[in-house]
Amino acid sequence: MTSETITPTGAGHADEPIVRLRHPGRWVAAAILAVLAAMFVHFVTTSPKLRLELVVGYLFERSILRGLLLTLELTIVAMLVGVVLGTALAIMRLSHNPLLRAVSAGYVWLFRGTPILVQLLFWFFLGTVLPQISIGIPFGPSFASVPTNTLITQFTAAILGLGLNEAAYMAEIVRAGIGSVDRGQTEAAHALGMSPWVTYRRVVLPQAGRLIVPPTANETISMLKLTSLVLVIGLPELMTTAQLIYGRNFQQIPLLIVASIWYLVLTTVLTFVQTRIERRMSRGTGAFARKRIRLAIGGR
After folding, report:
1. How far apart are CA 82 and CA 179, in angstroms?
2. Residues 281 and 213 sit within 8 Å (Cβ to Cβ)
3. pTM, rounded to two decimals
4. Is the separation of the CB atoms in 195 and 204 below 8 Å?
5. What is the DSSP annotation of 41-78?
6. Where are the beta strands (DSSP E) in the chain?
7. Which end of the chain is more exposed for a tag (fewer CB within 10 A), N or C?
């Protein structure tokens, strides 16, 4: 039984109306979801224990905004470290040098195989096993040294933990993007006398960006939420600040709602930016590739 009946024109029969297939299950599901949504809104607006006035009061509180700014700083710096180092690791993984490939593979294996929480704590407590960081001749005298705890502050430990872990994931993302570029373009660039670095920079990476950018945007959104893990080392970002406040006034749920609202706002903004970038990069894919080849040939 089909969802509609079509009569050929001129067959001598009157046109019959299209009878669409009914889906009662959809209406039932919609009704259930509407009831659940109404119950949720009623609970939020009528429950005095949620303390919505406290949520509104703390939403733009000065310490919360400082924690929000620190969260943004951690996200940006950690992603920069991850993207730059991850790109280098991906290029090493694709190298013909077996040592470079082994180092890259070992890095990805180590940092993807251990929890990020463990890595944050490792960098924060590194001074307990390495009191001094020295610069000098390997296995010889040192020219300068500095206490590890002075060099690796809370912020530095957070960047090392988040950024180095992100680099392992970005290495695989970039490697997959580079692998998607037709090998013939690389061979053509080498035949024209372009160096491997120029080939990567002007031919391979711009085309691989179409596949690299969307998952990188997803990693950025994930990084924004992963910054809450620096709570374990006491860095006062958004989540840590909320915890410090509700540790004093014992209003856990209102402060958690405040933190959640700001995370949702930032995630929404990043998702909007990601969508715009993906739309822009999906336009004229073939023309983009031809343009990059012409520019590469003209500027080699």
Report:
1. 19
2. yes
3. 0.79
4. no
5. HHHHHH-GGG-HHHHHHHHT-HHHHHHHHHHHHHHHHH
6. 132-136, 142-147
7. N
